[in-house]
Amino acid sequence: MTQKKRLLCIAPDGTETLDLLSDAMHDWEIRSVATLAEAGRELRGNRYLVGLLMHGRELQRPSDVDLFLRRHGHMQWVGVFRRRDLEQAPCRDLVIEHLCDYHTAPVDPVRLAHTLGHAHGWAMLRRPAAVAASAADGRDSPLIGSCDAIVRLRAQVDRVAKVAAPVLIWGESGSGKELTAQEIHARSERARGPFVPINCGAIAPSLIHSELFGYERGAFTGATRGKAGLIESADGGTLFLDEIGDLPKDLQANLLRFLQEKTICRLGSTRQIRVDVRVVAASHVQLQQAVAGGAFREDLYYRLAVLPVTVPPLRERREDLVALSEHFFELYASEKSPRLKGFSNRAIEAILEHEWPGNVRELINRVRRALVMSDGRLIMPEDLGLTRGIPIAQPDALDDTRMRTERRALRECLDRSGQNVSRAARDLGVSRTTMYRLLSKHGMRPA
Fold first, then answer.
1. Residue 244: inside a domain
2. How far from 76 is each of 6, 168, 219, 305, 323, CA to CA, in Å?
3. Residues 326 and 289 in one domain
């Protein structure tokens, strides 16, 4: 049986229209609430793609409605207003800024049902990858995605989190090494303890010893009192050593001693302090090569690399690009204009075609830039700074017939599906990502 579509209706002034609407929308599950507060509680516990905002007392406080719709801007909202409401500037602003469509009362339930169905289809077209990723994951994890590479990473995290041995994370710059370390800590028995991150390449070499191991009063000029180091402050939790390959050689020896003996000695002291810490290290360079070049101690490498974990670069996570983009769109939604509702098809194509040398960090940067720079209702490639355009494959003489046939098949399938990319992809038996690549290859866009 096909699962019913879901509608959240905010109807402060009665249910007469809702009764008429229910008759026209028998394949929908309609949940009605009377106030914005009730709607907020409902959305905290349930997921809706479409909402219906009906005229009533709430509209006397348009600032409250504006704030509510800002918080839930990921949904497609349709409004029903009295004509005199639309004569007021605050009401018109709500329509322009937040709604995908509106009707005037009294409503035609058949026309309104058609509008809501279109809004639901648009929401599904924008969000199927994110929905699929969430369903495939099945749990609340910051490691978002459903591609094979990220599924393997989550499985690695689950395994290494259960033991206390040191972990060495490798991944390109910006790929999410610290996020992976945080997830290992959060899923371990030390989750209630501190998570202390240290960027070994960001601390001056002259200070790194005192920062890591602490110091006693009088250890050096200006040390007027003793101070615990970062290793000591992580007692009972996890110490994350980012860019461990940048650690000076003399400090590598001290770190090796700590890993072996689980004790530290503050600068200016001879007293050994026992510290219970789980060490997770990370590097964007291959430490085996650093060992071969003499820049990293071999014995320290083998102490750290008991449990190796590899974070995949973004170019190996093409299937997750749309889901990640949607996630960061919602995460930084407070920075966007209320009228901005999502990504255009052209923007999705540009995202899928880009190589992402800066990995997830670059994706976050470009999405946040687009949230601020976009002037329309949908993000365009130029808002993302992806202005080189999408290359269109040009058929050579031998493949001309095959290319024409493929293009015709795509066009016919889109026409049959009502220009719905997701439905056309299912009809062709390909993923939505592959469908966008095929459309990009032929320079096509849904109407």
1. yes
2. 12, 43, 63, 48, 18
3. no
**C-beta atoms surrounding 111 within 10 Å:** 11
pLDDT digits (tens, 9 = 90+) for 204-255: 777 888 888 888 888 887 778 888 888 999 999 999 999 999 888 888 988 8
Long-range pairs, 12-15, Cβ under 8 A, ≥24: 12/54, 12/56, 12/57, 12/58, 13/54, 13/55, 13/56, 13/57
Per-residue tokens: 154: 């989550």
- 251 and 291 both lie in a single domain: yes
Which of 3, 70, 128, 72 lies closest to 337, judged by CA? 70
Q: Are 360 and 262 within one domain?
A: no
| Domain of residue 272, CATH code | 3.40.50.300
User: Per-residue b/e over 234-271, b at no fewer than 16 CB within 10 Å?
Assistant: bbebbbbbbbbbbbeeebbebbbebbeeeebbbbebee
Any idea what the CATH number is for the domain that residue 334 is in? 1.10.8.60
In a shared domain, residues 230 and 364: no
138: in domain = no
Average pLDDT of the residues of the chain? 83
Q: 184 and 241 share a domain?
A: yes
Same domain, 379 and 423: no
Average confidence (pLDDT) over 374-390: 82
Give the model confidence (pLDDT) of 252-291 as tens digits. 988 899 999 999 888 888 888 999 999 999 999 889 999 9
Residue 29, beta-bridge partner list: 6
Cα of first residue to Cα of last residue in the chain, in angstroms, is: 30
Same domain, 186 and 269: yes
Q: Which residue among 384, 414, 432 closes a domain?
A: 384
Residue 79 domain boundaries: 5-126
Q: Is there a domain that residue 347 lies in?
A: yes
Helix (H) or strand (E) holding 272: strand 272-274
pLDDT at 15: 60
pLDDT tens digit sequence for 100-117: 899 998 888 889 989 999
Residue 105, domain member (yes or no): yes
pLDDT value of position 73:
77
DSSP conformation letters of 205-265: HHHHHHHHH-B-TTSSTT--S-B--HHHHTTTSEEEEETGGGS-HHHHHHHHHHHHHSEEE
Give the count of alpha carbons within 13 A of 430, CB side only.
Answer: 14
pTM summary value: 0.60
pLDDT band at 124 (very low <50, low <70, confident <90, very high): confident
Do 309 and 323 lie in one domain? The reply is no
